[in-house]
Design brief:
The chain contains four helices and five strands; from the N terminus they run ββααβββαα. With 241 residues, the protein is α+β, with helices and mostly antiparallel strands.
């Protein structure tokens, strides 16, 4: 391992089964325990088996959801509903299966194709789930129309356009930003890279942290990301949620 300023890089390739590797890094007797962190794995052990997938990243175990983001069983039925049949429990973010399958169709034609497990889709799902909870409250109170007109009905999940945007750090002064990706392999376009992208990533992280801390600047920047009043592209509704 070598150090240069604040950057750290490794000059020796990992070879866990080679005693010479351990000797080179100053551990001639090896280690007692190795922890490998690669990819994602479900931790939904607290949920009933009938609500968990048999497949998916890490071997399965993801919470199955329907078009309303409600938790469903393997046979597609709502797992927990009120007396009127409205869902009571939702699964958003990394915990859910990340797609809604259409039997007999390839992933490209599913109701909701596979969604990347990144922050934007999780927040979009949370907005939709919260909107559905509020709408169910209105329906249960006897309200059938919104204040400005229009029938009150539960919102469907969709493949969010922001799920195709990735900012990847490549060191303190380097990064790359891909936009326009979707569920199809090799889609998307790398539109910013190098130093400018590293600055872009710092702005994203700083403003997002400020929003989570209820800062004014962060909330002004990020509020309309998931509360866009008019959607001109993507599969969301034309007029927000």
């Amino acid at each position: 391992m070598k150090k240069k300023g604040i950057a750290t890089y490794y000059a020796i390739k990992y070879a866990g089964n080679d005693p010479a590797f351990w000797a080179k890094i100053g551990l001639p007797n090896g280690v007692d325990k190795e922890y490998v962190c690669i990819g994602v794995k479900a931790s939904n052990y607290f949920m009933p088996k009938e609500t968990l997938s048999d497949k998916g990243p890490g071997g399965g175990g993801w919470i199955l959801m329907g078009m309303k983001l409600e938790v469903v069983t393997k046979d597609g039925k709502t797992w927990c509903a009120d007396s009127k049949g409205n869902p009571c429990v939702y699964a958003v973010g990394d915990c859910n299966f990340g797609c809604v399958e259409t039997p007999g169709q390839p992933p490209d034609l599913w109701a909701v194709p596979p969604i990347p497990k990144i922050s934007y889709p999780g927040e979009e799902e949370a907005i939709i789930a919260c909107a559905n909870i509020h709408r169910i409250e209105k329906l249960n109170a006897g309200q059938t129309q919104f204040f400005c007109g229009g029938e009150i009905k539960l919102a469907d999940m969709h493949w969010p356009w922001g799920a195709g945007m990735f900012a990847t750090s490549l060191g303190p002064q380097d990064a790359c930003f891909v936009a326009g990706a979707n569920w199809k392999k090799n889609s998307g376009l790398m539109c910013v890279w190098g130093g400018p992208c590293a600055v872009q990533k710092e702005i994203i992280e700083a403003s997002k942290t400020d929003e989570c801390a209820y800062g004014v600047v962060g909330r002004l920047i990020w509020h309309f990301v998931h509360h866009t009043p008019l959607h001109l592209w993507g599969k969301g509704p034309l007029f927000g949620f």
